[in-house]
Amino acid sequence: MKAPARNDKIRNIAIIAHVDHGKTTLVDAMFRQSGVFREGQEVAERVMDSMDLERERGITISAKNCAVHWNGVKINIIDTPGHADFGGEVERAISMADGALLLVDASEGPLPQTRFVLKKALESGLRVIVVINKIDRKDARPQEVLDEILDLFIDLEASDDQLEFPLLYAIGRDGTAQKTLEEKGENLQVLFDLILKELPAPAYDPAEPFQMLVSDLGYSDYLGRLAIGKIVNGAVKSNDQLVRIAENGSQPALKVTRLQTYDGIKVVPVDAAEPGDIIVLAGADEVMIGDTICNRESPKALPRINVDEPTVSMRFAINTSPFAGREGKFVQSSKIRERLTKETLRNVSIQVEEGENRDSFIVKGRGEFQMSILIEQMRREGFELSVGRPEVIYRYKDGVRQEPIEHVYIDCEEQFMGVITEKLSIRRGRMVNLVNNGRGRVRMEFSAPSRALIGFRDEFLTDTKGTGILNSLFDGYDDYRGDFPTRFTGSIVCDRQGEAVAYAIFNLEPRGRLFVVPGDKVYEGMVVGEHNKDRDIDVNVCKEKKLSNMRAAGKDDNILLTPVRPMTLEEAIHFIRDDELVEITPLTIRLRKIVLDGLERHRNKGSELKAQREGS
């Protein structure tokens, strides 16, 4: 068989790393040393994390592409998210790459998301360069980490060629790389040279016409939907007349209205693109991921890539509280629908369906963290909305209900092993592995339902006093494992509209943990605290002290209230029950009952109990 031609002027590499292993910092150094930024140019740190939320949380949320030039060769760098909730982007990123850079922390070693992305890369037959980063850490253990990486490659059934991986040690923050631990690195030249030498150039068939596999989608307010992908064969020019082969085999025509490629962190317009390059193509309005864009004269479809199905859904609705419209700019359902629809164009792992009424929507995604990021983005854009508790998406196979299962990896101190095991067992988790190295820390692996992890991460950090590490990977569907309690406490619910008063709050503190401070505006049906017992109670937080003419020593002592820690968006979403909502505005996060009227709630509760008695 004739060997394919290769475009030696291009390299396409995917960067694989777990959260906080230094991927974005290393790419920063690659930019600086390859001349993307001119000398003296002021550049923010972690330029690849361009969103405010990415900078605040120190994680990559949306995978981005960029390009650097070294010795006349263009290196397209394909970012992969380091958090499992955004893993829907991984397979698409791998489909554009011809090689991979595996970045591993010299102390923590390979962690679950590293495993997940590396498995996809090895299955695709990619050649991998291993970079052990942060070797300047005090607790660095590069030799042990190298052994762990080798074990991981063997465990993932890497080929003999993949097992003979090139190895570098790096300090990403300083922008240095070296071949051995003994030598002192000065810059990243050794890394650039290794990429050009070890990672293959993109292959193509010179006899084939233009073919491009759509691996990602973008959206521009001016150009509409953008198709992003690698040119597998042939070349393309601006204004070319092409066709798109859809999933159902149809072949709608399209015209290339604009052709762009990556240069540094920007996208620049070009007149033509070569085989192997990654391009952004405008002009295909109905394009979907996995479609093939090809020559009109001889259309040939490439093997499709698929996006993982969502596992979690949440109900988004307009804000119907008495305080609706006071703080937000966008409050109408039409504005929320428009914003969610735009999100589906930018983010293919999000799906939106109409709810039971015209003012609500069902949003599906890969995890509750992905959902909370979307809600936080909307909140910062000026939206007011209310959201329900995250729910897992069930499947039915031969009439049997199945639920999504997660493989949970836990690293914690030995003293916390008991409480973590007990809590996950209550939530239908099963321990599948336990490693105790005798150094005071243990590594545990559990198989647990996805719904067991909703709200568990906050508890986990509290139980391990902030020293535990929890990661999880989607592990397919399995038979429903049974019910378990999501919360052992009830809610303290306000019974009237007004302002919270210190006297009332002080007298309610023995009942549980309160969420409001004196002066906070409240309304009937608003959840103002967490009850110590497992039932809800209606209270009056607006009650003032009765004044009389009688005075006695000590009666008017200054009231000292327990400080209230503001609830974050994630904590609020995890806290609520099925009959509660989170009210989100640009300035405030409140909890409330779906049914605000207290009498109506009591009637509904009585009807439910009556129906249960009759059913039993």
Task: Indicate the topology.
Elements: E1 5-6, E2 10-16, H1 23-34, H2 52-57, E3 65-70, E4 73-79, H3 90-96, E5 99-105, H4 112-123, E6 127-133, H5 142-155, H6 160-163, E7 167-171, E8 176-178, H7 189-198, E9 203-204, E10 211-220, E11 224-233, E12 236-237, E13 241-245, E14 253-255, E15 258-263, E16 266-269, E17 272-273, E18 278-282, E19 292-295, E20 312-317, H8 333-346, E21 351-354, E22 360-365, H9 368-380, E23 385-387, E24 391-392, E25 395-397, E26 400-413, H10 417-426, E27 430-436, E28 441-449, H11 456-463, E29 469-479, E30 490-494, E31 498-499, H12 502-508, E32 512-514, E33 521-522, E34 526-531, E35 537-539, H13 569-575, E36 580-584, E37 589-593, H14 598-615
Parallel strand pairs: 2-4, 2-5, 5-6, 6-7, 30-35
Antiparallel strand pairs: 1-9, 3-4, 7-8, 10-11, 10-19, 11-18, 12-17, 13-14, 13-19, 15-16, 15-18, 20-22, 20-23, 20-24, 21-22, 23-36, 25-26, 26-28, 26-29, 27-28, 30-34, 31-33, 32-34, 34-37, 36-37
